[in-house]
Amino acid sequence: MKKMGIKTVITVGILFLLAPLQIPAGPNTPGVIPERILGIFGGMGPEATANLYQLIVQITPAKKDQDHIPTLIFSFPQVPDRTTAIRSGDRSIVPYLVKGVRTLEAAGASLIVIPCNTAHYYYDEMQQAVKIPIIHMIRETVNETLRLYPQVKTIGLLATSGTIQSGLYENEFRKKGIKTVKPSENIQNDSVMKAIGLIKAGGDKKSCRDLLAQAGADVYKQGAEVIVLGCTEIPLAFDPQSVRVPVINATRVLAEAAIREYRSQEAHSTNSPLSDSQRKRLQDWGVTIGVLPTGKWNAITDVPGVKVGHRTLIEGDRVRTGITAIIPHGDNIFQHKVPAAIYVENGFGKLTGSTQIEELGNLETPIVLTNTLSVGAGLEGLIEFTLQQPGNEQVRSVNGVVGETNDGYLNDIQNRRVQIKDVLEAISAATSGPVTEGNVGAGTGTVCFGFKGGIGTASRKLPDRLGGYTVGVLVQTNFGGILQIKGVEAGKILGQYYLKNELEKNTDGSCMIVVATDAPLLSRNLKRLGKRAILGLGRTGGIAANGSGDYVISFSTAIRIPHQADFKKDRYEELRNDETSQLFLAVIEATEEAILNSLFQAETMSGVEGHRVEALPVECILSILRNKE
Description:
Helix content is about 35%, strand content about 20%. It is α/β, with parallel strands linked by helices and about 625 residues long. The longest helix is centred in the last third of the chain and has 21 residues. The termini are far apart.
Protein backbone atom coordinates (compact mmCIF):
# COMPACT_ATOMS: atom_id res chain seq x y z
CA MET A 1 0.00 0.00 0.00
CA LYS A 2 1.27 3.46 -0.86
CA LYS A 3 2.26 5.40 2.22
CA MET A 4 0.10 8.48 2.76
CA GLY A 5 1.89 11.75 3.47
CA ILE A 6 0.63 14.65 5.51
CA LYS A 7 -1.01 16.35 2.53
CA THR A 8 -2.96 13.19 1.69
CA VAL A 9 -4.49 12.65 5.09
CA ILE A 10 -5.26 16.32 5.69
CA THR A 11 -8.18 16.30 3.29
CA VAL A 12 -9.76 13.38 5.13
CA GLY A 13 -9.81 15.20 8.45
CA ILE A 14 -12.31 18.01 7.91
CA LEU A 15 -15.48 17.14 9.83
CA PHE A 16 -17.20 20.50 9.69
CA LEU A 17 -16.35 23.60 7.73
CA LEU A 18 -18.13 26.90 7.84
CA ALA A 19 -16.70 29.45 5.41
CA PRO A 20 -18.42 32.69 6.37
CA LEU A 21 -17.61 34.68 3.26
CA GLN A 22 -19.20 32.06 1.00
CA ILE A 23 -22.60 31.91 2.71
CA PRO A 24 -25.31 33.63 0.65
CA ALA A 25 -27.08 36.23 2.73
CA GLY A 26 -30.47 36.77 1.17
CA PRO A 27 -33.43 38.53 2.79
CA ASN A 28 -34.71 35.26 4.27
CA THR A 29 -31.37 34.18 5.79
CA PRO A 30 -31.78 33.87 9.58
CA GLY A 31 -29.12 35.23 11.88
CA VAL A 32 -25.95 36.95 10.65
CA ILE A 33 -22.89 35.87 8.73
CA PRO A 34 -20.23 35.21 11.40
CA GLU A 35 -17.00 37.16 11.20
CA ARG A 36 -15.24 34.75 13.59
CA ILE A 37 -14.99 30.96 13.78
CA LEU A 38 -13.81 28.70 16.57
CA GLY A 39 -11.34 26.09 15.35
CA ILE A 40 -10.89 22.72 17.07
CA PHE A 41 -7.72 20.81 16.20
CA GLY A 42 -8.65 17.28 17.20
CA GLY A 43 -8.28 13.63 16.40
CA MET A 44 -5.93 13.03 19.36
CA GLY A 45 -8.18 11.04 20.10
CA PRO A 46 -11.34 11.37 18.05
CA GLU A 47 -13.84 10.58 20.82
CA ALA A 48 -12.26 13.19 23.08
CA THR A 49 -12.60 15.72 20.25
CA ALA A 50 -16.30 14.93 19.91
CA ASN A 51 -16.66 15.22 23.68
CA LEU A 52 -15.15 18.72 23.66
CA TYR A 53 -17.54 19.92 20.97
CA GLN A 54 -20.46 18.34 22.82
CA LEU A 55 -19.45 20.20 25.98
CA ILE A 56 -19.20 23.48 24.06
CA VAL A 57 -22.72 22.97 22.71
CA GLN A 58 -24.08 22.01 26.14
CA ILE A 59 -22.45 24.91 28.00
CA THR A 60 -23.24 27.64 25.47
CA PRO A 61 -26.37 29.59 26.49
CA ALA A 62 -28.66 29.23 23.49
CA LYS A 63 -32.35 29.31 22.64
CA LYS A 64 -31.96 28.56 18.94
CA ASP A 65 -29.38 27.24 16.49
CA GLN A 66 -28.11 30.71 15.64
CA ASP A 67 -27.07 31.33 19.26
CA HIS A 68 -24.36 28.67 19.08
CA ILE A 69 -20.75 29.29 18.14
CA PRO A 70 -19.75 28.69 14.49
CA THR A 71 -17.17 25.94 14.69
CA LEU A 72 -14.68 24.34 12.39
CA ILE A 73 -13.38 20.92 13.50
CA PHE A 74 -10.30 19.37 11.98
CA SER A 75 -9.88 15.78 13.14
CA PHE A 76 -6.37 14.62 12.26
CA PRO A 77 -5.85 11.23 13.96
CA GLN A 78 -2.73 10.57 11.88
CA VAL A 79 -0.71 12.86 14.17
CA PRO A 80 1.96 10.55 15.68
CA ASP A 81 1.62 9.47 19.30
CA ARG A 82 2.54 12.39 21.54
CA THR A 83 3.79 10.35 24.49
CA THR A 84 6.13 8.33 22.28
CA ALA A 85 7.46 11.50 20.64
CA ILE A 86 8.15 13.20 23.97
CA ARG A 87 9.85 10.14 25.46
CA SER A 88 12.07 9.59 22.44
CA GLY A 89 12.71 13.25 21.66
CA ASP A 90 11.48 12.65 18.11
CA ARG A 91 10.79 16.03 16.49
CA SER A 92 9.15 14.58 13.39
CA ILE A 93 5.76 15.13 15.07
CA VAL A 94 6.09 18.92 14.83
CA PRO A 95 5.21 19.27 11.10
CA TYR A 96 1.95 17.37 11.71
CA LEU A 97 0.97 19.70 14.55
CA VAL A 98 1.98 22.80 12.61
CA LYS A 99 0.01 21.61 9.59
CA GLY A 100 -3.03 21.10 11.80
CA VAL A 101 -3.17 24.63 13.19
CA ARG A 102 -2.28 26.19 9.84
CA THR A 103 -5.10 24.26 8.17
CA LEU A 104 -7.59 25.76 10.62
CA GLU A 105 -6.18 29.25 10.17
CA ALA A 106 -6.30 28.96 6.38
CA ALA A 107 -9.90 27.72 6.58
CA GLY A 108 -10.99 30.85 8.48
CA ALA A 109 -10.62 30.06 12.19
CA SER A 110 -10.02 33.08 14.42
CA LEU A 111 -9.26 31.05 17.56
CA ILE A 112 -7.95 27.51 18.09
CA VAL A 113 -8.42 24.98 20.88
CA ILE A 114 -6.66 21.61 21.03
CA PRO A 115 -8.35 18.83 23.07
CA CYS A 116 -5.09 17.01 23.79
CA ASN A 117 -3.13 17.91 26.90
CA THR A 118 0.05 16.18 25.80
CA ALA A 119 0.16 18.06 22.48
CA HIS A 120 0.65 21.26 24.46
CA TYR A 121 4.25 20.18 24.99
CA TYR A 122 4.65 21.63 21.49
CA TYR A 123 2.48 24.69 22.15
CA ASP A 124 5.16 27.25 21.30
CA GLU A 125 5.87 25.62 17.92
CA MET A 126 2.16 25.63 17.06
CA GLN A 127 1.50 29.18 18.26
CA GLN A 128 4.50 30.51 16.39
CA ALA A 129 3.19 28.90 13.19
CA VAL A 130 -0.07 30.91 13.11
CA LYS A 131 -1.17 34.49 13.72
CA ILE A 132 -4.39 33.59 15.51
CA PRO A 133 -4.42 32.73 19.24
CA ILE A 134 -4.32 29.15 20.52
CA ILE A 135 -5.80 28.69 23.98
CA HIS A 136 -3.29 27.04 26.32
CA MET A 137 -5.26 24.19 27.87
CA ILE A 138 -2.85 23.50 30.72
CA ARG A 139 -2.61 27.12 31.86
CA GLU A 140 -6.37 27.54 31.70
CA THR A 141 -6.81 24.42 33.83
CA VAL A 142 -4.25 25.53 36.40
CA ASN A 143 -5.85 28.98 36.67
CA GLU A 144 -9.34 27.51 36.99
CA THR A 145 -8.16 25.10 39.69
CA LEU A 146 -6.78 27.97 41.74
CA ARG A 147 -9.88 30.08 41.14
CA LEU A 148 -12.10 27.34 42.51
CA TYR A 149 -9.74 26.13 45.25
CA PRO A 150 -7.41 29.03 46.14
CA GLN A 151 -6.11 27.35 49.32
CA VAL A 152 -5.05 24.08 47.68
CA LYS A 153 -1.46 23.00 48.30
CA THR A 154 -1.29 19.56 46.67
CA ILE A 155 -2.74 18.52 43.31
CA GLY A 156 -3.19 14.95 42.10
CA LEU A 157 -2.62 14.57 38.36
CA LEU A 158 -4.05 11.82 36.16
CA ALA A 159 -2.60 12.14 32.68
CA THR A 160 -0.64 10.33 29.99
CA SER A 161 2.93 9.34 30.71
CA GLY A 162 4.00 11.88 28.09
CA THR A 163 2.24 14.72 29.88
CA ILE A 164 3.74 13.63 33.19
CA GLN A 165 7.23 13.26 31.75
CA SER A 166 7.02 16.66 30.07
CA GLY A 167 6.17 18.37 33.36
CA LEU A 168 3.47 20.47 31.68
CA TYR A 169 1.18 20.58 34.69
CA GLU A 170 3.86 20.15 37.32
CA ASN A 171 5.80 23.18 36.08
CA GLU A 172 2.72 25.40 35.92
CA PHE A 173 1.55 24.39 39.39
CA ARG A 174 5.08 24.79 40.77
CA LYS A 175 5.05 28.42 39.63
CA LYS A 176 2.05 28.88 41.94
CA GLY A 177 3.82 27.15 44.85
CA ILE A 178 1.67 24.03 44.55
CA LYS A 179 2.93 20.45 44.76
CA THR A 180 1.83 17.85 42.19
CA VAL A 181 1.55 14.15 43.01
CA LYS A 182 1.24 11.46 40.32
CA PRO A 183 0.33 7.77 40.33
CA SER A 184 3.07 5.31 41.16
CA GLU A 185 4.88 3.84 38.15
CA ASN A 186 2.93 0.57 38.30
CA ILE A 187 -0.44 2.32 38.61
CA GLN A 188 0.49 4.73 35.83
CA ASN A 189 1.35 1.92 33.42
CA ASP A 190 -1.17 -0.74 34.44
CA SER A 191 -4.14 1.47 35.22
CA VAL A 192 -3.93 4.96 33.66
CA MET A 193 -2.20 4.17 30.35
CA LYS A 194 -4.12 0.91 29.99
CA ALA A 195 -7.44 2.73 30.48
CA ILE A 196 -6.46 5.46 28.01
CA GLY A 197 -5.53 2.84 25.43
CA LEU A 198 -8.83 0.99 25.92
CA ILE A 199 -10.82 4.22 25.53
CA LYS A 200 -8.99 5.10 22.31
CA ALA A 201 -9.75 1.60 21.03
CA GLY A 202 -13.43 1.88 21.91
CA GLY A 203 -13.15 -0.52 24.85
CA ASP A 204 -15.56 -1.14 27.70
CA LYS A 205 -15.92 2.00 29.80
CA LYS A 206 -16.75 0.10 32.99
CA SER A 207 -13.40 -1.67 33.11
CA CYS A 208 -11.72 1.64 32.32
CA ARG A 209 -13.65 3.28 35.14
CA ASP A 210 -12.36 0.70 37.62
CA LEU A 211 -8.76 1.17 36.44
CA LEU A 212 -8.96 4.96 36.77
CA ALA A 213 -10.54 4.67 40.21
CA GLN A 214 -7.37 2.88 41.32
CA ALA A 215 -5.28 5.76 40.06
CA GLY A 216 -7.52 8.30 41.81
CA ALA A 217 -7.19 6.42 45.07
CA ASP A 218 -3.42 6.29 44.65
CA VAL A 219 -2.93 10.08 44.34
CA TYR A 220 -5.47 10.65 47.14
CA LYS A 221 -3.31 8.51 49.44
CA GLN A 222 -0.36 10.71 48.52
CA GLY A 223 -2.17 13.77 49.81
CA ALA A 224 -4.00 15.14 46.78
CA GLU A 225 -6.58 17.76 47.80
CA VAL A 226 -7.88 18.17 44.23
CA ILE A 227 -7.51 15.79 41.30
CA VAL A 228 -6.92 17.17 37.81
CA LEU A 229 -7.94 15.01 34.85
CA GLY A 230 -5.13 16.04 32.53
CA CYS A 231 -5.95 13.78 29.60
CA THR A 232 -9.02 14.24 27.41
CA GLU A 233 -9.74 10.49 27.33
CA ILE A 234 -9.86 10.13 31.11
CA PRO A 235 -13.10 12.15 31.68
CA LEU A 236 -14.89 9.77 29.28
CA ALA A 237 -14.65 7.01 31.89
CA PHE A 238 -13.58 8.54 35.21
CA ASP A 239 -16.23 8.57 37.95
CA PRO A 240 -15.77 11.64 40.21
CA GLN A 241 -17.71 9.82 42.91
CA SER A 242 -14.90 7.27 43.18
CA VAL A 243 -12.68 9.76 45.04
CA ARG A 244 -13.15 11.87 48.16
CA VAL A 245 -11.79 15.14 46.77
CA PRO A 246 -12.93 17.59 44.08
CA VAL A 247 -12.13 16.78 40.46
CA ILE A 248 -11.15 19.25 37.72
CA ASN A 249 -11.95 18.14 34.17
CA ALA A 250 -9.48 19.87 31.85
CA THR A 251 -11.72 19.22 28.85
CA ARG A 252 -14.59 21.15 30.43
CA VAL A 253 -12.20 23.94 31.41
CA LEU A 254 -11.11 24.13 27.77
CA ALA A 255 -14.72 24.23 26.59
CA GLU A 256 -15.50 27.11 28.97
CA ALA A 257 -12.35 28.95 27.91
CA ALA A 258 -13.24 28.48 24.24
CA ILE A 259 -16.68 30.02 24.76
CA ARG A 260 -15.32 32.85 26.87
CA GLU A 261 -12.51 33.76 24.46
CA TYR A 262 -14.77 33.44 21.41
CA ARG A 263 -17.33 35.78 22.97
CA SER A 264 -14.48 38.13 23.86
CA GLN A 265 -13.38 38.16 20.23
CA GLU A 266 -16.98 38.55 19.13
CA ALA A 267 -17.33 41.66 21.26
CA HIS A 268 -14.58 43.21 19.16
CA SER A 269 -16.59 42.66 15.98
CA THR A 270 -16.80 45.68 13.76
CA ASN A 271 -19.03 47.12 11.12
CA SER A 272 -16.06 48.79 9.46
CA PRO A 273 -15.58 48.23 5.71
CA LEU A 274 -12.52 46.09 6.41
CA SER A 275 -13.53 42.78 8.05
CA ASP A 276 -11.51 41.36 10.94
CA SER A 277 -9.96 38.66 8.78
CA GLN A 278 -8.76 41.36 6.36
CA ARG A 279 -7.11 43.58 8.96
CA LYS A 280 -3.37 43.27 8.60
CA ARG A 281 -0.23 44.68 10.11
CA LEU A 282 1.49 47.55 8.36
CA GLN A 283 4.18 45.43 6.69
CA ASP A 284 1.55 42.95 5.46
CA TRP A 285 0.17 45.78 3.31
CA GLY A 286 3.62 46.29 1.81
CA VAL A 287 4.29 49.47 3.82
CA THR A 288 7.79 49.55 5.29
CA ILE A 289 9.07 51.87 7.99
CA GLY A 290 12.73 52.83 7.97
CA VAL A 291 15.69 50.92 6.58
CA LEU A 292 16.52 48.22 9.12
CA PRO A 293 15.19 44.64 8.77
CA THR A 294 12.62 43.31 11.25
CA GLY A 295 13.03 40.25 13.42
CA LYS A 296 11.24 37.00 12.59
CA TRP A 297 7.96 38.02 14.23
CA ASN A 298 8.44 41.77 13.96
CA ALA A 299 7.58 41.86 17.66
CA ILE A 300 9.15 42.46 21.05
CA THR A 301 9.29 38.67 21.40
CA ASP A 302 12.05 38.61 18.77
CA VAL A 303 14.35 39.48 21.66
CA PRO A 304 15.31 36.00 22.96
CA GLY A 305 13.55 35.05 26.18
CA VAL A 306 10.93 37.83 26.11
CA LYS A 307 7.31 36.73 26.37
CA VAL A 308 4.00 38.60 26.23
CA GLY A 309 0.63 37.63 27.69
CA HIS A 310 -2.79 39.29 27.64
CA ARG A 311 -5.94 39.09 29.71
CA THR A 312 -8.81 40.78 27.88
CA LEU A 313 -11.92 41.76 29.85
CA ILE A 314 -15.08 42.47 27.86
CA GLU A 315 -18.40 42.17 29.66
CA GLY A 316 -21.76 43.52 28.53
CA ASP A 317 -21.55 47.06 27.22
CA ARG A 318 -19.54 48.54 30.11
CA VAL A 319 -16.30 46.58 30.60
CA ARG A 320 -13.60 47.17 27.97
CA THR A 321 -10.22 46.74 29.64
CA GLY A 322 -7.51 44.23 30.46
CA ILE A 323 -3.93 43.38 31.36
CA THR A 324 -0.82 42.98 29.21
CA ALA A 325 2.26 41.41 30.79
CA ILE A 326 5.81 41.54 29.40
CA ILE A 327 8.26 39.03 30.86
CA PRO A 328 12.01 39.62 30.29
CA HIS A 329 13.07 35.99 30.72
CA GLY A 330 11.83 32.62 31.92
CA ASP A 331 13.81 32.36 35.16
CA ASN A 332 12.98 33.85 38.55
CA ILE A 333 13.17 37.53 37.66
CA PHE A 334 13.48 38.70 41.27
CA GLN A 335 16.51 36.50 41.83
CA HIS A 336 17.95 37.22 38.37
CA LYS A 337 17.21 40.88 37.68
CA VAL A 338 17.91 42.63 34.38
CA PRO A 339 19.31 46.12 33.73
CA ALA A 340 16.55 48.66 33.14
CA ALA A 341 15.80 52.34 32.84
CA ILE A 342 12.84 54.72 32.79
CA TYR A 343 12.43 57.74 30.55
CA VAL A 344 9.54 60.16 31.09
CA GLU A 345 8.58 62.41 28.20
CA ASN A 346 5.46 63.80 29.90
CA GLY A 347 4.59 62.70 33.42
CA PHE A 348 0.79 62.99 33.49
CA GLY A 349 0.41 59.33 34.42
CA LYS A 350 1.19 56.55 36.83
CA LEU A 351 4.18 54.21 36.61
CA THR A 352 4.75 52.28 39.81
CA GLY A 353 8.26 51.11 40.54
CA SER A 354 9.90 53.82 38.45
CA THR A 355 11.89 55.48 41.24
CA GLN A 356 13.60 52.26 42.31
CA ILE A 357 14.54 51.49 38.71
CA GLU A 358 15.87 55.04 38.42
CA GLU A 359 17.89 54.57 41.61
CA LEU A 360 19.21 51.02 41.19
CA GLY A 361 19.06 50.53 37.45
CA ASN A 362 17.39 47.13 37.37
CA LEU A 363 14.04 45.38 36.90
CA GLU A 364 12.92 42.56 39.22
CA THR A 365 9.36 41.74 38.09
CA PRO A 366 7.44 41.37 34.85
CA ILE A 367 6.09 44.62 33.44
CA VAL A 368 2.31 44.97 33.63
CA LEU A 369 0.20 47.42 31.64
CA THR A 370 -3.47 48.15 32.48
CA ASN A 371 -5.90 51.06 32.98
CA THR A 372 -5.43 54.05 35.27
CA LEU A 373 -7.62 52.89 38.17
CA SER A 374 -6.35 49.30 38.07
CA VAL A 375 -2.69 50.05 38.78
CA GLY A 376 -3.24 48.87 42.36
CA ALA A 377 -4.56 45.49 41.20
CA GLY A 378 -1.65 45.23 38.78
CA LEU A 379 0.83 45.82 41.58
CA GLU A 380 -0.88 43.33 43.90
CA GLY A 381 -0.80 40.76 41.13
CA LEU A 382 2.93 41.25 40.61
CA ILE A 383 3.57 40.93 44.33
CA GLU A 384 1.52 37.73 44.45
CA PHE A 385 3.34 36.34 41.41
CA THR A 386 6.75 37.13 42.88
CA LEU A 387 6.03 35.69 46.31
CA GLN A 388 4.76 32.47 44.73
CA GLN A 389 8.08 31.83 42.97
CA PRO A 390 10.23 29.07 44.49
CA GLY A 391 13.27 30.68 46.05
CA ASN A 392 11.42 33.84 47.09
CA GLU A 393 10.18 32.54 50.42
CA GLN A 394 12.15 35.15 52.37
CA VAL A 395 11.34 38.12 50.12
CA ARG A 396 10.07 41.14 52.08
CA SER A 397 10.07 43.83 49.40
CA VAL A 398 8.93 43.71 45.77
CA ASN A 399 9.30 46.55 43.26
CA GLY A 400 6.47 45.80 40.85
CA VAL A 401 6.40 47.81 37.62
CA VAL A 402 2.90 48.77 36.44
CA GLY A 403 2.08 51.31 33.74
CA GLU A 404 -1.30 52.59 32.59
CA THR A 405 -3.37 54.55 30.16
CA ASN A 406 -6.89 55.81 30.76
CA ASP A 407 -9.50 53.75 28.87
CA GLY A 408 -12.44 55.53 30.54
CA TYR A 409 -14.11 56.60 27.28
CA LEU A 410 -15.03 53.01 26.34
CA ASN A 411 -14.61 51.31 29.72
CA ASP A 412 -16.51 51.84 32.98
CA ILE A 413 -13.17 52.56 34.62
CA GLN A 414 -14.63 53.25 38.07
CA ASN A 415 -15.87 49.66 38.11
CA ARG A 416 -12.24 48.56 38.61
CA ARG A 417 -12.94 45.19 37.04
CA VAL A 418 -9.29 44.08 36.92
CA GLN A 419 -8.44 41.68 39.75
CA ILE A 420 -5.28 39.98 41.00
CA LYS A 421 -6.23 36.75 39.24
CA ASP A 422 -6.41 38.59 35.91
CA VAL A 423 -2.83 39.75 36.35
CA LEU A 424 -1.70 36.23 37.18
CA GLU A 425 -3.55 34.86 34.15
CA ALA A 426 -1.91 37.39 31.84
CA ILE A 427 1.52 36.42 33.17
CA SER A 428 0.69 32.73 32.93
CA ALA A 429 -0.51 33.18 29.34
CA ALA A 430 2.73 34.85 28.24
CA THR A 431 4.41 33.19 25.26
CA SER A 432 7.10 33.88 22.71
CA GLY A 433 6.34 34.15 18.99
CA PRO A 434 3.63 36.34 17.41
CA VAL A 435 1.96 38.89 19.69
CA THR A 436 -1.76 39.60 19.40
CA GLU A 437 -2.31 43.30 18.73
CA GLY A 438 -5.14 45.82 18.67
CA ASN A 439 -8.12 45.47 21.01
CA VAL A 440 -6.48 43.08 23.41
CA GLY A 441 -5.21 43.13 27.00
CA ALA A 442 -4.35 46.63 28.20
CA GLY A 443 -5.25 48.01 24.77
CA THR A 444 -8.84 46.76 24.81
CA GLY A 445 -10.45 50.14 25.49
CA THR A 446 -7.86 52.66 24.29
CA VAL A 447 -8.16 55.44 21.69
CA CYS A 448 -5.35 56.82 19.52
CA PHE A 449 -5.45 59.86 17.20
CA GLY A 450 -9.26 59.71 17.51
CA PHE A 451 -9.33 56.16 16.13
CA LYS A 452 -9.37 52.86 17.99
CA GLY A 453 -5.92 52.29 19.52
CA GLY A 454 -4.58 49.28 21.37
CA ILE A 455 -1.52 47.10 21.72
CA GLY A 456 1.11 47.21 18.99
CA THR A 457 4.58 45.75 18.59
CA ALA A 458 7.52 45.69 16.18
CA SER A 459 11.23 44.89 16.13
CA ARG A 460 14.46 45.62 14.31
CA LYS A 461 17.50 43.39 13.95
CA LEU A 462 20.94 44.83 13.29
CA PRO A 463 23.23 43.25 10.69
CA ASP A 464 25.85 40.86 12.06
CA ARG A 465 28.62 43.37 11.30
CA LEU A 466 26.88 45.75 13.73
CA GLY A 467 26.51 43.12 16.43
CA GLY A 468 23.37 41.34 15.23
CA TYR A 469 21.43 42.71 18.20
CA THR A 470 17.63 42.88 18.29
CA VAL A 471 15.50 45.75 19.59
CA GLY A 472 11.82 45.02 20.24
CA VAL A 473 9.09 47.47 21.20
CA LEU A 474 5.56 47.02 22.58
CA VAL A 475 3.19 49.96 22.96
CA GLN A 476 -0.16 50.67 24.61
CA THR A 477 -1.53 53.57 22.54
CA ASN A 478 -4.04 56.01 24.01
CA PHE A 479 -2.88 59.45 22.91
CA GLY A 480 -3.66 62.22 20.44
CA GLY A 481 -2.23 64.48 17.79
CA ILE A 482 -2.43 64.45 14.00
CA LEU A 483 -1.67 61.01 12.61
CA GLN A 484 1.33 60.78 10.29
CA ILE A 485 2.41 57.70 8.33
CA LYS A 486 5.73 57.75 6.49
CA GLY A 487 5.70 61.53 6.67
CA VAL A 488 2.19 61.85 5.22
CA GLU A 489 -0.26 63.83 7.38
CA ALA A 490 -2.95 61.18 7.07
CA GLY A 491 -4.91 62.52 10.05
CA LYS A 492 -5.11 65.97 8.57
CA ILE A 493 -6.31 64.60 5.25
CA LEU A 494 -8.87 62.36 6.92
CA GLY A 495 -9.94 65.25 9.18
CA GLN A 496 -11.44 67.00 6.21
CA TYR A 497 -14.35 64.56 6.39
CA TYR A 498 -13.77 61.90 9.07
CA LEU A 499 -13.62 62.34 12.87
CA LYS A 500 -12.43 65.92 12.40
CA ASN A 501 -13.46 67.11 15.86
CA GLU A 502 -11.81 64.21 17.66
CA LEU A 503 -8.59 64.54 15.70
CA GLU A 504 -8.30 68.26 16.39
CA LYS A 505 -9.49 68.44 20.00
CA ASN A 506 -8.81 65.12 21.72
CA THR A 507 -5.03 65.26 22.09
CA ASP A 508 -4.75 64.19 25.74
CA GLY A 509 -4.09 60.58 26.66
CA SER A 510 -1.04 58.44 27.24
CA CYS A 511 1.38 56.06 25.62
CA MET A 512 3.27 53.31 27.42
CA ILE A 513 6.34 52.10 25.52
CA VAL A 514 8.29 48.99 26.53
CA VAL A 515 11.68 48.50 24.87
CA ALA A 516 13.61 45.23 25.06
CA THR A 517 17.02 44.41 23.61
CA ASP A 518 19.62 41.67 23.77
CA ALA A 519 22.39 44.24 23.36
CA PRO A 520 24.55 44.42 26.52
CA LEU A 521 23.48 47.78 27.93
CA LEU A 522 23.27 49.02 31.51
CA SER A 523 20.78 51.55 32.83
CA ARG A 524 22.53 54.70 31.54
CA ASN A 525 22.50 53.64 27.91
CA LEU A 526 19.09 51.99 28.30
CA LYS A 527 17.75 55.39 29.31
CA ARG A 528 19.36 56.90 26.23
CA LEU A 529 17.65 54.17 24.20
CA GLY A 530 14.32 55.08 25.80
CA LYS A 531 14.73 58.73 24.85
CA ARG A 532 14.98 57.76 21.20
CA ALA A 533 11.76 55.72 21.40
CA ILE A 534 9.94 59.02 21.93
CA LEU A 535 11.30 60.16 18.57
CA GLY A 536 9.41 57.22 17.05
CA LEU A 537 6.24 58.40 18.76
CA GLY A 538 6.81 61.87 17.35
CA ARG A 539 7.17 60.47 13.84
CA THR A 540 3.59 59.17 14.07
CA GLY A 541 2.23 62.64 14.96
CA GLY A 542 2.01 62.29 18.73
CA ILE A 543 2.63 65.55 20.59
CA ALA A 544 2.98 64.48 24.28
CA ALA A 545 0.12 66.79 25.23
CA ASN A 546 -0.36 68.33 28.67
CA GLY A 547 -2.70 65.55 29.78
CA SER A 548 -0.62 62.74 28.30
CA GLY A 549 1.51 60.28 30.26
CA ASP A 550 4.26 59.17 27.92
CA TYR A 551 6.71 56.72 29.50
CA VAL A 552 9.39 54.37 28.21
CA ILE A 553 10.58 51.31 30.13
CA SER A 554 13.75 49.83 28.63
CA PHE A 555 15.55 46.64 29.63
CA SER A 556 18.32 44.37 28.39
CA THR A 557 18.21 40.58 28.50
CA ALA A 558 21.95 40.25 27.86
CA ILE A 559 22.93 40.83 31.49
CA ARG A 560 21.64 39.18 34.67
CA ILE A 561 22.03 40.90 38.02
CA PRO A 562 21.87 38.39 40.91
CA HIS A 563 19.74 39.38 43.88
CA GLN A 564 22.36 37.94 46.20
CA ALA A 565 25.98 37.11 45.55
CA ASP A 566 29.15 36.16 47.43
CA PHE A 567 31.21 38.78 45.60
CA LYS A 568 31.39 42.52 46.24
CA LYS A 569 32.00 43.83 42.74
CA ASP A 570 29.83 43.43 39.67
CA ARG A 571 31.65 43.08 36.38
CA TYR A 572 29.65 43.42 33.18
CA GLU A 573 30.64 43.94 29.60
CA GLU A 574 28.66 46.80 28.05
CA LEU A 575 28.63 48.26 24.57
CA ARG A 576 30.70 51.36 24.16
CA ASN A 577 28.84 54.60 23.61
CA ASP A 578 30.11 54.71 20.04
CA GLU A 579 28.27 51.44 19.31
CA THR A 580 24.82 52.65 20.37
CA SER A 581 23.77 54.83 17.43
CA GLN A 582 22.51 51.91 15.36
CA LEU A 583 20.42 50.80 18.34
CA PHE A 584 18.93 54.30 18.53
CA LEU A 585 17.85 54.06 14.90
CA ALA A 586 16.39 50.59 15.54
CA VAL A 587 14.26 51.73 18.48
CA ILE A 588 12.96 54.78 16.59
CA GLU A 589 11.83 52.64 13.66
CA ALA A 590 10.38 49.88 15.86
CA THR A 591 8.43 52.34 18.02
CA GLU A 592 6.96 54.11 15.01
CA GLU A 593 5.85 50.83 13.45
CA ALA A 594 4.54 49.41 16.74
CA ILE A 595 2.25 52.44 17.17
CA LEU A 596 1.00 52.13 13.61
CA ASN A 597 0.44 48.38 14.06
CA SER A 598 -1.75 49.11 17.07
CA LEU A 599 -3.95 51.24 14.81
CA PHE A 600 -3.94 48.93 11.80
CA GLN A 601 -4.86 45.92 13.97
CA ALA A 602 -7.46 47.60 16.18
CA GLU A 603 -11.16 47.22 15.36
CA THR A 604 -14.17 49.48 15.84
CA MET A 605 -15.50 49.18 19.38
CA SER A 606 -18.55 50.34 21.28
CA GLY A 607 -18.54 50.64 25.05
CA VAL A 608 -19.91 52.35 28.12
CA GLU A 609 -22.72 54.92 27.70
CA GLY A 610 -23.01 54.06 24.02
CA HIS A 611 -19.60 55.49 23.16
CA ARG A 612 -18.16 54.18 19.92
CA VAL A 613 -14.70 54.57 18.41
CA GLU A 614 -14.12 53.69 14.78
CA ALA A 615 -11.20 51.66 13.51
CA LEU A 616 -8.62 53.32 11.32
CA PRO A 617 -10.01 53.40 7.75
CA VAL A 618 -7.20 51.31 6.31
CA GLU A 619 -8.39 51.46 2.69
CA CYS A 620 -8.38 55.25 2.83
CA ILE A 621 -4.95 55.29 4.44
CA LEU A 622 -3.48 53.00 1.78
CA SER A 623 -5.02 55.13 -0.94
CA ILE A 624 -3.52 58.27 0.61
CA LEU A 625 -0.08 56.65 0.78
CA ARG A 626 -0.29 55.47 -2.83
CA ASN A 627 -1.28 58.93 -4.02
CA LYS A 628 1.67 60.49 -2.21
CA GLU A 629 4.25 58.13 -3.71
